[in-house]
């Protein structure tokens, strides 16, 4: 990671507080659903939909990519207005994207570093690739072009997935192993480099980058609206609620013939999740930044300002703990703690949830310490 800052001159309150809160809530939810005590005992809302459909868990990743889009506007808009800075700015964007991809690949390799079976797609690689693409789009294009690209990505992806015959299958389809995206991943990346749980397809595959970029462009469009100085706050919020509700409705209509599906990142899913994200951000913006109700924000802000840090560290700690064996059965240390501290005192599903909540609280303590000392690690 790059950009460690620890200085008394760092002004955290210059950030858009509602955006940090929304990001923090999203990342905390990501940590919660990624770290149950027992993967066999999870409450339904904390699991992904089996295929088509959308649970609260399915909203976490698109919410984060949407937030990336809003953040791009707040981070780059002033510099992007100066054409003389574009070259330097584009290099910075591409560098940050490459670092995110590199961090994802490090986690995929760690601790055995077997390049022959390393998963190439993944959450951090998708964030890095989408950030780089959309960052370049934001710097080099105007709002009208960004809006055109948003709809172009959604429509082109819909046409590819529903009309193009899949080689070896002979017809277009949206099934896990035989859709066009799965075929493309197997052809270009090879099955050893895909998601190990599925083997023959990957939920963060190559073709899905197209609609994932649309999710971030959605955030860019809303972020640009929020930054406008010719509109009062009430007007901004009213139009955000209108746009969010409209996107949800359009997503549900599109769902009738292009199902909402997180693994495929379908166009209907982009509109549905992006619409809900817009409603959520509008709510937080109105309550926190406009009305000034900030007393409840601290726990979420500490997660929000170091979002990538906590995501990386949580995965790194889990992988590292698997190397440390304890007890008579030589269990991984975290599993040993779960079996002896949580499992005996709760029902299986509640023990699993209690462990996940404690995991979130554990990192909140670390992040609170970092926040108190104004430590923000930026990629």
TrEMBL record:
Keywords associated with the record: Acyltransferase, Membrane, Transferase, Transmembrane, Transmembrane helix
Signal peptide positions on this chain: none
GO molecular function terms listed in the Swiss-Prot or TrEMBL record: acyltransferase activity
Membrane-traversing stretches: 59-77, 89-111, 123-140, 147-166, 205-226, 238-257, 269-288, 300-318, 352-371
PANTHER family: LD22376P
Protein name, per record: Putative acyltransferase
Organism, scientific name: Mucilaginibacter gracilis
